[in-house]
Amino acid sequence: MNPAPLVALVGNPNAGKSALFNALTGARQKVGNYPGVTVERHAGRLALADGRPVELLDLPGTYSLDPSSPDEAVTRDVLLGKQAGERLPDAIVVVVDAANLDNHLRFTLQLIALGLPMVVALNMFDLAERDGLVLDPEALERELGVPVVPTVAVRRRGLDALKERLAEVISPGARTLREGHGVPHDITVLQRRARQIALAATVSETAVRRWTHRIDAVALHPVAGPVLLFGLMFVMFQAVFAWSEAPIGWIEGLMAWLGEQAGALIPAGWLHSLVVDGVIAGVGAVVVFLPQILILFAFILTLEASGYMVRAAFLMDRLMASVGLSGRAFIPLLSSFACAVPGIMATRTIADDKDRLTTILIAPLMTCSARWPVYTMVIGAFFPNRQVLPFVGLQGLVAFGLLITGILGALAAALILRRTVTRGATSGFMMEMPKYQWPQPRDLLLGLAQRAEVFLKRAGSIILVTTIVLWALLSFPKAPDGQSQVEYSIAGRIGSAIEVVVAPIGFNRDISLALLPAMSAREVAVAAIGTVYAIDDPEGDAGQETIREKLQSRWSLATALAFLVWFVFAPQCISTIAVTRRETNGWKWPAFMVGYLFALAYAGAGITYWTAVALGLG
Amino acid sequence: MNLPAPSRVPLNALPRMGAGVVASVDWHALTEPEARRLRELGLDEGVEVELLRPSGLMGGPVACRIGRMIVALRRHVAGAIHVAPTAG
Hints:
The complex is a heterodimer.
Chain A: E1 6-11, H1 17-25, E2 29-33, E3 40-47, E4 53-58, H2 70-79, E5 91-97, H3 101-112, E6 118-123, H4 125-130, E7 133-135, H5 137-144, E8 148-150, H6 159-169, H7 187-201, E9 202-205, H8 211-219, H9 224-242, H10 245-265, H11 270-287, H12 290-306, H13 308-322, H14 330-335, H15 340-346, H16 353-362, H17 371-382, E10 387-389, E11 392-393, H18 394-419, E12 430-433, H19 441-475, H20 485-488, H21 490-502, H22 509-515, H23 524-535, H24 547-554, H25 557-569, H26 574-584, H27 588-614
Parallel strand pairs in A: 1-4, 1-5, 5-6, 6-8
Antiparallel strand pairs in A: 2-3, 3-4, 7-9, 10-11
Helix pairs in contact in A: 3-7, 5-7, 9-12, 10-11, 11-19, 11-23, 12-19, 15-26, 16-18, 17-24, 17-25, 18-25, 19-23, 21-22, 22-23, 25-27, 26-27
Chain B: E1 9-10, E2 19-25, H1 32-40, E3 48-53, E4 62-66, E5 69-73, H2 75-79, E6 81-85
Antiparallel strand pairs in B: 1-6, 2-3, 2-6, 3-4, 4-5
């Protein structure tokens, strides 16, 4: 049987394309990757008016078939049938913003020239009317010569009509592109033609001062704007910790219950130890960050959907320009506070290669959520929870200091990289600022569900495997009586080798042992230190002495501080290294990134340790 | 090349909320990708523009309206766009 016809959804950025995609396919979506690039492939299923199923492909938004970034290149290649692993679409749906016809029709004209069957979705029709713009869709259809359907994706209006018109244009049989679809390459010619058509389709237009202008009067204000941005960031980071407390408790409860259930089922022995201490405890230690990651992403997705994110980039451009980047880099860097992996993937919207590479190289310096458990464990053990200023606790202040250290380190690194290895012409900053809109809960929930899925898959694969491997390395070979199991184990011997290198910066054997598994993901360090102390404690009095007390008795304050600074800089995350390799097409840049970050971590931790010892904190 | 008439000012020299019509664009002052993206954003002679947020003391980007779109531009790009201000 033939596969279902493939329909590509194409349009300018900010045309409401993803909202239309979500409205048409609902939860029947699949997020994958195009081979060779990390541009996400969003596909979904829908049934046409006549019942035929089609596969709908949501292509990255672009202004023309002349790409200026990797994600725009995917759109062009799919539409020209040149994308590896993708069929030439059987039809395209062009999404245009009804309130911005002049501009969006130019791309539509380019697409019409391809000769594929197509339907134009005249989207956000209601917003155009609210802006005082009365359009005649039939006139537009006559001018363009292709079907035009007014839609309001967020209110699910016009969807049935769209499916009907789509059913009419899709016919069985092979597709070919029109010969010489090169179209008039001169953008200006197309642009002027687009303006004529837009004028012909406009019934009347009254000037209305839009909401967007009123909000921008504050959001882009030289003083009020940065204050608002800082306030939003503050609320966001507060929420990540404050709102996650309860759900983290539930997950911990669930994991403890799972451990008990499994423990009761499996007889004592190595399998019991593997499942309960290894798998459930290890994976559980990571899954507890899901609430924090989701809260952070909820903020980021909301800021993006509302149109504010580009304003934040606007405000940050001056600062970013001073280190050789642009405001556009702010968006992936902000995502990196949740996790560097989606952050690095989000750099694909940056047009300039050197600019993009620099952003990738500094993204791991943003304090990702995997560092917080490490910070929390060590800060909790060594810094009393006392107020230093009204509303400011000492522990929070230390954590904030580590966050700022990471940001300053990233800015300094960008400054140096842009003058050395990623030297090049400074890229510009030119971005369309979309109209403000209310984020749609459905789009937000779909986005969060996709993030959660990606995170849980990671926890279920990489972290599961490393946890099992660490457990095995720590448990074998069995130490003879009177010898420490940890020291005798394979991991203990590897740890001793690492210890030689890290002893000068104040790291003891426990830390050396934790550094290796923490390469899989930073948060594993917490679980690893817990496992080391548990396996090293054959009497099993772990219940009496908490990890906090063990740390206090075995680590000096200088060691603790050095350990924290190490985690600010060290590239301890296999996923980040892997995504960097994929994004930069080779091992050169991930190798460089790992090298420079380890050097920074070693120097930073060393300076911290030696200074602390000199101050008598050793 | 014709010198811009005195009534033409660079976009970034318009007063805040000042509007005008693009008279000419100094495409040679821009890099090729900059020029292309600017065209893609709908900038062309005869298009109405408005300066919404000037560059400020620190020399940050400007926010302007090009046709029906709001666009962020670096100062040197806005400086290459010559505008005939509309009265009022």
